Amino acid sequence: MPRLLSTVACNLDPHLLRACLPLFESGEADAIEWSFDALYRLDALPDWFHGLINAFSEGNRLIGHGIFFSLFSGKWHPEQETWLRELSAVCRKYRFDHITEHFGFMTGQDFHHGAPLNIPYTDAALRIGRDRLLRIADACGRPVGIENLAFSWSVDEVRQHGDFLDQLLEPVNGFIILDLHNLYCQVANFNLPFETLAALYPLHRVREIHISGGSWELSEDQSRSIRRDTHDDSVPEEVFRYLENIIPRCPHLRYLVMEQLGSGLETEDSKNAFRADFRRMAAIARQWNLTKGDEILHPFSPPANPPQGAPLEDLALYQQQTELSSILENAPSFEAATRALQASSLAQSHWQVERWSPFMLETAMHIAQKWMKKN
Known about the structure:
two-stranded antiparallel ribbon, 375 residues, alpha/beta, eight-stranded parallel β-barrel, single chain
C-alpha cells in the first residue's frame, strides 16, 4: 500500500461532489476525509452517499474530521455529550482510520454554531483539552488528532502554538493535522518566515496534511490585507512549495488532503482548477512514494483506559468565552469592541488582550458576525 494517500475532503455538497466525481471514477482519489458531524442532524444518509463512504470505509481509506465539538469550551455542554454518542454510533457503522477535530472554541451562544477561535495557553486550558481528547478517543476507539489553527490573536500565540499542541496530544498519543494554508495565513498575517514557523511544530506528530485556498480581506482602515482561511479558492503557489518542503520532515505522514468548500466550486472553471490542484498534490505524493516505498507503522494508537470521572470544567474560562463571544458578535465597530474588552473580565488576564493585534481583533469580529448570521 502506498506510503502517502492522496485524499479529498468530500462532504454532502452538490458542487463539491461534482468536482470530486471524476477523481472517484478514475481512481485518482486514494481516500476520503469526511466531516461526519456536519450531518448529525440527518436521520439517515442518502443511499448513494452511504455507498460512497462505505466503499472507502471497507478499503480502510476513510478518515473523519469533526467541526462542532468545541474542544476548549470551559463548560461541558449537553451538545458535547450528544456529539460523543453520535461519534460512537458512526464509528460502529463505518471504519475510520482516524478521527480529528479543530483546535479552539466556538463562538456563539452554545459554542457549537460559531467561529473557531484561540484560547489562552494556560494549564487550565491544557487540562480541559486533554480531558476532551481522551473522551473523543474513548468514543471512537481510533487514533485522534487536532488541526493547527489559522487564527491567532498575537504573534506570541503563533510562536507558542506548536509546543502547546505537543503537550495537548501527548497523553492520548495523538497526532497533528498540519494545515499548510493555516500556516500560510500565519506567515502572511504576522510576517514570519515559513521555516521559522515550521520549526516550532512537533513534525514527528504529523499524520495528515491539509492544503487549500482562501481569500484576502482588506482591513477597515485599508492599511493592510488579512489572509483568511475561507477554503473558497485555488491553492496558492506558496502552499505547494510548503508541501514539498515539509513532507520529508514528517516521518509518520500518511494522508495528503485537498480541501475546498462547495461555495467556491460553482463554475466549471473552478471545478477544473480544483481537480488540477488535486492532481498536482497527488503527483507530489507519487514522487515521494517512489522514493520512500511502502507505508510505515504509526505510534498514534489511542489509550486503552477510559477517562475517569466527570468532564473537567473551568467556569471562569467559560464566563470569559461567553463575554468574548458577545463582544465579537455584537460590537458595532472595532473601537467599541476594544472598549468592551478593556471593561471585561478578559482585561489584565491570561488572555493578554492588551497584546492582541488590532487587525486580528477586527478579523475575529467579521468571522463571528458572519457565523452568527448563518445561524
